[in-house]
């Protein structure tokens, strides 16, 4: 049976025809006529009303009220789901852009193919010196720049000359200022505003007890929903430009893989040469391990016989270049001194030396005034020493 119409509404002719059709189909399925099916359903409803202690009209009104309530709940649920989907789409894929000078006007970003003008602008700005710095966005390294440097580049003479050569670049005019031109980058998702964030936010674990080692100046950033355009804000490049180099690398890797896979088809002489070459590499690796073991044994022997110990290739496992790892050939073990005690000792010694130097120069000047020129020449270099101690 079709659901009853909402409260206060009469069924339309289409709904009436649909209900009659459903009633006829149900009667045919049970092998009854329509009046017989109606009588059977009425008898069932009267029996259910009698069980609940209600009259037949009261029971029918109760069923209608329950149907209206279910229909209203279904409509509210559908509206709530549609609202949530719209909010998610606006929050994730459609951040708002607020342009400076537009009195807070917000323009929604619609994902899609980027504007050719925005691509031309991004390509030109990527070739300029915006003093970009590397940041971490969603676990990937990206280039970050300040808005003011991009705006300076847009209002420069170089941009004016580039606009004359490339018609896709939008020129700076009183109707389209530099901020309005920069706005097309976030609108095309080629550059978005970011801010510094905590890399451990949202992980659900306690903050680290020990300070972690981080690269100086390397920010972990997040994309801001409000894409404002002001001088001191930071934007991150999402435009990578033509990836011809990556394509060449991919083609080279594919050729290399196919070459290795087709190894059985190589000529015999070439396969023998590759075998000798691989044996040579294995020999070099074995020689490296033998040298590492030998230098460790040499250090263990010399640390007792000739302390503090001798290292062969002391920079072998240091974070240096390949050639710097083998320079110098040998070196003594460096003793680690406590910086705190050393700084205190140096401070005390400096104070003592400073006091002695000041006391020693005063009689020297007196002798120099009363004696010959040789004494004055001999103590002529004492005055700068006194000044250096006072400066410290």
UniProtKB/TrEMBL annotation:
Compositionally biased spans, kind Low complexity: 9-25, 77-106
Region Disordered, annotated ranges: 1-25, 67-118, 337-392
Compartment(s): Endoplasmic reticulum membrane
Species in which this protein is naturally found: Lepraria neglecta
Topology in membrane: Multi-pass membrane protein
Superkingdom of origin: Eukaryota
Family statement: Belongs to the SEC62 family.
Transmembrane segments: 248-266, 272-289
Principal subcellular localization: endoplasmic reticulum
GO biological process: post-translational protein targeting to membrane, translocation
Xref: NCBIfam families: sec62 (TIGR00869)
The protein's name in its UniProt record: Translocation protein SEC62
Keywords on record: Endoplasmic reticulum, Membrane, Protein transport, Translocation, Transmembrane, Transmembrane helix, Transport
Feature: compositional bias, Basic and acidic residues: 67-76, 346-356
UniProt keyword Metal-binding, yes or no: no
GO CC term (a single one): endoplasmic reticulum membrane
């Amino acid at each position: 049976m079709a659901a009853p119409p909402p409260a206060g509404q009469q069924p339309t002719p289409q709904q009436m025809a649909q209900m009659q059709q459903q009633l006829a189909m149900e009667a045919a399925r049970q092998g009854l006529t329509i009046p017989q099916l109606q009588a059977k359903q009425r008898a069932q409803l009267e029996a259910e009303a009698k069980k609940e202690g209600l009259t037949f009209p009261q029971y029918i009104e109760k069923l209608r009220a329950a149907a209206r309530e279910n229909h209203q709940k279904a409509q509210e649920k559908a509206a709530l789901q549609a609202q949530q989907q719209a909010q998610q789409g606006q929050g994730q894929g459609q951040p708002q852009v607020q342009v400076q000078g537009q009195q807070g006007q917000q323009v929604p970003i619609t994902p899609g193919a980027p504007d050719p003008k925005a691509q031309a602008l991004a390509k030109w700005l990527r070739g300029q010196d915006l003093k970009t710095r590397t940041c971490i966005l969603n676990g990937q390294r990206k280039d970050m720049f300040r808005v003011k440097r991009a705006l300076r580049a847009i209002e420069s003479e170089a941009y004016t000359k580039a606009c004359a050569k490339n018609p896709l670049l939008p020129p700076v005019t009183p109707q389209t200022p530099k901020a309005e031109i920069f706005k097309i980058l976030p609108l095309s998702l080629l550059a978005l505003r970011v801010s510094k964030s905590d890399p451990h936010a949202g992980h659900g674990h306690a903050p680290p007890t020990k300070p972690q080692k981080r690269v100086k100046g390397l920010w972990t950033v997040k994309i801001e929903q409000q894409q404002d355009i002001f001088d001191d804000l930071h934007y991150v490049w999402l435009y990578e430009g033509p990836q011809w180099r990556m394509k060449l690398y991919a083609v080279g890797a594919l050729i290399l893989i196919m070459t290795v896979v087709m190894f059985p088809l190589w000529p015999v002489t070439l396969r023998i040469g590759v075998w000798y070459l691989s044996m040579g590499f294995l020999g070099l690796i074995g020689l490296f391990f033998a040298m590492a073991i030998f230098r460790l044994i040499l250090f263990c022997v010399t640390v007792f016989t000739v302390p503090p110990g001798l290292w062969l290739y002391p920079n072998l496992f240091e974070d240096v270049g390949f050639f710097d790892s083998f320079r110098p050939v040998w070196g003594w073990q460096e003793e680690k001194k406590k910086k705190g005690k050393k700084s205190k000792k140096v401070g005390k010694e400096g104070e003592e030396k400073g006091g002695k130097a000041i006391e020693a120069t005063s009689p020297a000047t007196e002798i120099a005034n009363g004696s010959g020129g040789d004494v004055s020449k001999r103590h002529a270099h004492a005055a700068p020493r006194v000044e250096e101690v006072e400066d410290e």
